[in-house]
Each structure stands twice: as structure tokens, then as C-alpha cells.
Amino acid sequence: MERILAVCEFHGECEKVIQKVLEIGSEGDFVYILYFIPSKMHETIDKKAHTMIKGEAKKVLQTCIEKIRKEKISCKGKIKRGNAFSAMKKIVNKYKSTLIIIGYDKKGLFSHYSMEELMQKIADIASIPVMVVK
Q: What total number of domains does the chain contain?
């Protein structure tokens, strides 16, 4: 039984991450989706824009959860901001994750890392296999 942590971000393509989860996962597995909104975004926008972004993020997250549950895979998710690596480590430990699937976008949250550096950093923190989806 896989226990997958799927990591998406506001600027990234969450659909590709979810597609990979559905390719790997099967009935009886568990998926936890962490959907990140960059902290910088919160500091530079007004309250109305913040509300709109958070609302859009909730819709995307809910759509992803429904797609996964449709395949009889248990799924939970949460919108987060702040230190992504710390949040991933907490979720990996809490849910005893066996695999991390993370979305990578050149404009996104992890853009200052190469894909190889990102995989290594997460593997060092979580001590489980990491798959980066571009």
C-alpha cells in the first residue's frame, strides 16, 4: 500500500502531479496533497486579491481530491504557505508517506533549485523516494 505525498503549487501545473498519482496509486492507497501558495504572494497583494487566490486554490485542491477519490484512493489535502520543506517533513512523518511526487515549474516555488537539487534536498529531509514531475 502506497502512502503518497503529492506536492503542488499555485504557479505550477497540479494536473500533472495528480495524473502521476493516478498512474502510480491504486485502490486502498492513501494520498495527501499539499498545495502551496507562496508567502511572497500574501505580502504583496490586497485583501480582495488574497481572497480570490485562496478561493481559486480551494477549488483546485477540491477538484484534485475528487479525481483521486473517484479511483477509490483515500485522499486528504491542505493549502499551505511558508516553508515547504518543513511542511513536507511534517506530513511525511505524520502519515508515514512512502513516496513524494512533486510538481516542478521554472517560475514556481522551487525554481531556484535544479530538478536534481530539489530531489536530493527532499530525499535528505524525508528519507523516502521522490519523483519530480515537470
A: 1
